[in-house]
Amino acid sequence: MCGRFALYSAYPRLSRALRLPLEQAGELTPRYNVVPGTWITVVRHPGDEAPLVMDEAWWGYRPHWAREAAPEPINATVEKVATSRYFKAAFAHHRCLVPADGWYEWLPLSGKKQPHFLCRKDREPLWLAGIWSERPDGGPGCAILTEPARGVAREIHERMPLALGEESLAPWLDPQLTGRETLRRVVHHLPDERLTHWPVSMRVNRPANEGAELLEPAPE
């Protein structure tokens, strides 16, 4: 799954890494402990003819037509996102990217859960596949796609966010591509061998804790 991540790269670095024409709406504040139920940075087309923009969406997906008691998931699985009634319209028409410098997962260890930070070996930003929809309150809400864990990520958790390879960013964001099979042919995840991880401080367990020290390797 993906329930916590970090984004501390500045806009110029993200813009260079994306390599697509992009407009910025607002400033980015470095965040080392991004939690669900908050506004997060996304890259999306806010309308059919709108330019690509980096703005914010609420991390919690509830489409505008859903009832008040409807679920508000933070993740959507790759196995069901294209066919589930709750997600399929967003998958076809409202895909987005969630930039992240890495994400956290917890490994059961000696009766406790040890947090690990997972990121690219070269420390370049990750681009997590997401979907968004207009929420009942009129604002955008999003969910991050997850897939079965691959490579070193399997050492920590059975699932992981769908991190896309560089060549897949443009087609994932292309509003003209709506078919499941078409997207399956042109969109691919980041190769396994580019990922690494290490254990970090238990301080990340508290959502209120922030700062670069959360990423420092924990003592053995």
Give a written overview of the molecule.
It holds the Pfam family SRAP. It is an enzyme of class 3 (hydrolase). Keywords: Covalent protein-DNA linkage, DNA damage, DNA-binding, Hydrolase, Lyase, Protease. With 220 residues, this protein is mainly β. It has helices spanning 11-18, 88-93, 169-173, 180-186, and strands spanning 5-7, 23-24, 31-34, 39-44, 53-59, 75-77, 95-100, 102-109, 112-120, 126-134, 140-148, 159-161, 195-199. Strands 2, 4, 5, 6, 7, 10, 11 and 12 form an 8-stranded mixed β-sheet that branches. Strands 3-1-8-9-13 form a 5-stranded antiparallel β-sheet, with no helix packed on it. The mean pLDDT is 94.
Which helices and strands appear, and what pairs or packs with what?
Blueprint: E1 5-7, H1 11-18, E2 23-24, E3 31-34, E4 39-44, E5 53-59, E6 75-77, H2 88-93, E7 95-100, E8 102-109, E9 112-120, E10 126-134, E11 140-148, E12 159-161, H3 169-173, H4 180-186, E13 195-199
Parallel strand pairs: 2-5, 5-11, 6-11
Antiparallel strand pairs: 1-3, 1-8, 4-5, 7-10, 8-9, 9-13, 10-11, 11-12
